C-alpha cells in the first residue's frame, strides 16, 4: 500500500472520529476484498462470508478510536479480521463437537435413559427463552431471523419473498442475532 493511501486512510479515520461516520464506507470499499479473502479462508458458505465480513467491519468501526496512527490501517484491519475468523472457527468446532457428543450419546441406549429427561427439560427451557426473546424483537428483525434460521432460506429467496434488499436483510439478521445474544445472556 502506498504512503499516500496510508496518509489518506489516516485523514479519513480522523474525519470519521470527528463525526463524519459516512466516510467509513470509503474504507469498507477500499479493504473489502482483503477482508473477504481472509474470511473465505475460514468459511465457504457465501452468506456466512458476507455476515462475517460485516461483523469485522462493524468491530473495526467500534474500535476505530484505538487505531494507532503509526500503524497501517490495512494491517490493523487484517489483524481484526484474522482474530475474528479464528474465534468464529473455534466456536464452529465447539458447536460441532457438542453436537457430535450429543449425537453419539443418543445412539447409546443406556445414555438415552439417563439423559433424555434432562435434555428434554433443557431443550424446552431454551426454546421458551428463545421464544420470549424473539417476541421482544421488532418484526423487522424477528421475521428475517426466522426465515434465515428456522426456514433455512437464502438471503436471495428472502429478498424475493419480502421485496427487501439482500443487504438490508443481512443487516436485520445480524442485528437480530446481536439482540438475541444479549437478551439470552441476560437470562442465563
From TrEMBL:
Pfam families: Sigma70_r2, Sigma70_r4_2. Keywords: Sigma factor, Transcription, Transcription regulation. GO terms for biological process: DNA-templated transcription initiation. Residues 129-180 form the RNA polymerase sigma factor 70 region 4 type domain. The keyword rRNA processing does not apply. One of its GO terms (molecular function) is DNA binding. InterPro entries: RNA_pol_sigma-70-like, RNA_pol_sigma-70_dom, RNA_pol_sigma70_r2, RNA_pol_sigma70_r4_t2, RNA_pol_sigma_r2, RNA_pol_sigma_r3/r4-like, WH-like_DNA-bd_sf. The keyword Metal-binding does not apply. Residues 27-94 form the RNA polymerase sigma-70 region domain. It comes from the Bacteria. Belongs to the sigma-70 factor family. ECF subfamily. This is Sigma-70 family RNA polymerase sigma factor. It comes from Rhodohalobacter barkolensis.
